[in-house]
Design goal:
The chain is mainly α and 113 residues long. It contains two helices and no strands.
Length: 113
């Protein structure tokens, strides 16, 4: 019976050692999976940051182009207005001045006292 007891104890110890080894291996694999997931998340974050930077650069470039286009339009309109004013004859300037004076007088006459 003693021999059987030692065999059972030996089997129990052997089984325990195998289970401990399996548990350690599973823990290593789990750690490797966690590390791989963390590395994958960091890589994804890096790629998303690069994409965001690219989109930001593109939006900034479009905004700059739009601003430049609007500025050019305003400058062109100002040049046209200046040319139109410079092209006025003295008679047209006098007519415009008379009109402006009439507008001021009308606004004063119509203003509450």
């Amino acid at each position: 019976m003693k021999a059987d007891g030692q065999t059972a104890l030996e089997q129990l110890l052997t089984t325990e050692a195998r289970l401990d080894a399996l548990l350690q291996e599973e823990a290593r694999q789990a750690e490797a999976l966690v590390q791989a997931a963390e590395e994958e998340a960091l890589e994804l974050e890096r790629r998303l940051e690069q994409e965001l930077e690219q989109v930001t650069r593109e939006v900034d470039a479009r905004l700059e182009a739009e601003r430049n286009a609007r500025l050019a339009f305003v400058e062109d309109e100002a040049r046209r207005a200046l040319l139109a004013v410079q092209a006025l004859t003295p008679e047209q300037i006098e007519t415009l001045a008379d009109w402006a004076v009439d507008q001021v007088i009308q606004s004063i006459d119509g203003a509450p006292a």
